[in-house]
Each structure stands twice: as structure tokens, then as C-alpha cells.
# Entry
Amino acid sequence: MGETVLDYDAEADRYDETRGGVPRARAAADAVLRLVPPGARTLLDLACGTGLVTERLTRPGLRVYGADAAPGMARTAARRVPGGVVLADARRLPLPDASVDAVSAVWLLHLVPFTEAIVAEAARVLRPGGVLIATVDKDAAHDVGSDVDAVLAPHRSYAKSSDRADRIAAHAAARGLEPAGATCFTGHGQGATPRGAAHKLRSGYFVSWFEGSPETTATLAAELAALPDQDRPRDDPEYRLVSYRRPVRRG
# Structure
């Protein structure tokens, strides 16, 4: 798992304010749209959450839908994208084969151990020429080389990260999807603070990349507590988006 598992129904009302709000959502949506083919008519935003990103995926001629497995999130998203949100598991979408032109998965694949199933389902619903667009390497993106990262770096490992770029590329290739592009965007409001990093470390939030014992956790928390400017956010991360295209078969 990429993070400590949240109760997304309970988090729906306050989720946006803890995740960078509109600036981060706008940056994410702009980046997704850079990878959507010019002629695309339909886009499905998987794990759309509150719909903050989904409602910003706007372009003339593009119809956008959202899907989320958490009822609380889906209800919130439906208020932002009226008539365009469905309650659904990303592994079992209520769509026929080859029915959409693009599928986006922003901040999803790092959360789940079944990325292969999600990629397979996205490939199933894509029309020829359609693209899957997804964030990758989210854990690694949060290492921006700050003093906070210097404390944590010796204990980081991304071997277990479910959204590692090489892993997602292999899943895509297995379903006949071809690399189609990549871009980056700023995770506004996500810069770490020493105090916040220590709290997350002690609470197990870094389980996907942290390697260390309870004793190591206590030592690192103390080192983080000794850093200056305890509540000053360090640099925001730069997230990476990749896209994979379902080929158009000739003849």
C-alpha cells in the first residue's frame, strides 16, 4: 500500500483542504489534458475522489466522467460533475469494451496492491487510439532533497511501491498498450514540514517506503524535531504523469 489506508467516506468533507486544494487540482488537470489526444471525446477519471480534479478536466468537445469506490467521495464528486459520476471499483467498471477515449488515474496506483488489474480494466475500456494516463513514482516524488529528506533518505526504499514506473510500464505492455508520452506537475501544498514528517513517521504513514524498527522511528522523529522551522513547508514535490496508448490496428 502507498499510504496508511484512510476511511475515504469519512475524509470526503475535508479531503481537499489536506491535499493542496484547488492549486494542486488545477495543476493535475492541466497536466492530464496535455496527454489527452486532441480528438478525444470521452475521458473517465478513475478514483475521482471529491471531483476537484475531474471538474477541471475541461476542453471543448471532451465529455468527462468520474468513478470512485467510496460512496462519500462519489457523492461529493457528483455535486461538482452533475450526471457524470458513478460509484464503481476501478477493477470492474460498468462500461463496455472499447467505450472511452481516455482513462486517467491521478494519485491512485500508489494506494493499491492491484495495479495490474486496474491497468487491465483501463485497457479493456479504451477505444483504439485511446490512452491511459496515470501518476507514477509518487513516493519518490516526495523526496525533494530537503533537510527533512536528508534525515529520512537512508531509510527509504521504493522496492514495494505499487506505482513504480517500471512496474506500470510492464502492466501496460502486457495489455498491448504502448508508451505515448509523459509530463510533470507541481504538487502545490504538499511540501513536507519537520513536525508533519515526524507525525507521519510515527503513525505509519510511510509504510510503503520506510525501512526501520520502532527504535529507528523514535531516533528519526527526534532528529526531525531538532530541525529548524518546524512548521515551514519545504519545496513542493513534482509529480510525474505517464500515458499509454491502445494501438490502432491497420488492415
Notes: Residues 21-35 form the longest helix (15 residues). The CA atoms of residues 128 and 248 lie 5 Å apart. The chain has a mean pLDDT of 92.
